[in-house]
Design goal:
about 30% helix, 9 helices, alpha/beta, about 15% strand, YaaA, globular, two-stranded antiparallel sheet, 10 strands, disordered N terminus, disordered C terminus
């Protein structure tokens, strides 16, 4: 059940206590909409605390709470009623109820992740495998408790010396991901699966990823709504199948067999890099079209040439 918490436990700035050993992690964008009545399956593990709650999140929250209603409307590009709602949320922040992130976010990706329909075992697997990038919280696990908010990663909100939220979070998110992979058994493949939008994946500094971490970018060409559904769907698939390698994800077909693995390519991890990332493309059977949204690759990856089919 939703509840209020003081959010006062001390946190080490270097080693967030929430990191669990990981060989495969999937990154997902949050949703703009919050379901205030969200619930997870009965008997799910205890809710957890966001990694950066008492550390790196504080300056971001301070800046957000200092925004006027007009600031919110202009910087977030929202309607007057939404600006008023989010101004009130930040004003009354300490009084807001907390909700598990994967259940609270309410959009196409999260409907297809469907955390509320998972078994206790699946929720635990989801907690190990899925990470949600957030403009306010930085990096979330599915059971991390959050308060209703709106702060997209692309919002023009300088924090400290950093000109954007994405630049601010890069210095925290990549080390946290590296720590999770470092705790996994030595010699095992370590795969970071990017299903996030470019706006959110910009919060990951790919140059700072550990040498033994392979970046896998998932592409779902076609209309944006189908791409968003598929992003949540492939995270659900990884949970249900207990995927541990990149190849394990090739069997994803969607809820009704609407997606098909179309192939893999290697591209430079970033412009001028000798390291590579792998890109998986899935095509939508019987449709999909062009001009839709797709999961973002590492910056410079798709344009730096040298694509190699795999």
């Amino acid at each position: 059940a939703a509840h209020r918490a003081p959010h006062s436990a001390p946190r080490s700035p270097r080693t967030p206590p929430c990191q669990q050993p990981a060989m495969l992690l999937l990154l997902l964008s949050p949703a703009k909409t919050i379901n205030a009545g969200a619930k997870v399956v009965a008997g799910a593990p205890k809710p957890t605390v966001p990694c950066f709650l008492s550390g790196a999140m504080r300056p971001v929250l301070h800046k957000a709470r200092g925004l006027s209603q007009a600031d919110i409307k202009a910087s977030m590009g929202v309607s007057a009623p939404l600006a008023a709602l989010n101004f009130e949320r930040y004003r009354d922040w300490e009084a807001l109820d907390e909700l598990p992130a994967a259940a609270a976010f309410d959009g196409p990706a999260y409907k297809h992740l469907s955390a509320g329909g998972m078994s206790k075992e699946q929720i635990s697997e989801c907690q190990r495998k899925v990470r949600i990038l957030s403009g306010l919280y930085g990096l979330l696990r599915p059971l991390d408790e959050i308060r209703p908010y709106r702060l997209e990663m692309g919002t023009k909100l300088p924090v400290g010396s950093k000109p954007t939220l994405a630049k601010y979070w890069q210095q925290h998110v990549s080390p946290a991901l590296n720590e999770a992979f470092a705790a996994a058994p030595a010699g095992e493949p370590k795969v970071l699966v990017n299903t996030a939008s470019k706006e959110y994946f910009d919060a990951v500094d790919v140059k700072a990823l550990a040498e033994d971490v392979q970046l896998l970018t998932i592409k779902f060409p076609g209309p944006a709504v189908y791409a968003k559904q598929a992003r949540g769907g492939i995270c659900r698939y990884a949970v249900e199948t207990k995927a541990t390698t990149a190849e394990d994800l090739q069997g994803f077909k969607g809820q009704e067999g609407e997606w098909s693995f179309a192939g893999a390519e290697e591209t430079p991890l970033f412009k001028g890099s000798d390291r590579t990332q792998v890109e998986y493309t899935f095509t939508r059977v019987g449709g999909g079209g062009s001009g839709g949204e797709k999961a973002s690759g590492a910056k410079g990856g798709a344009k730096s040439g040298g694509k190699r089919k795999r």
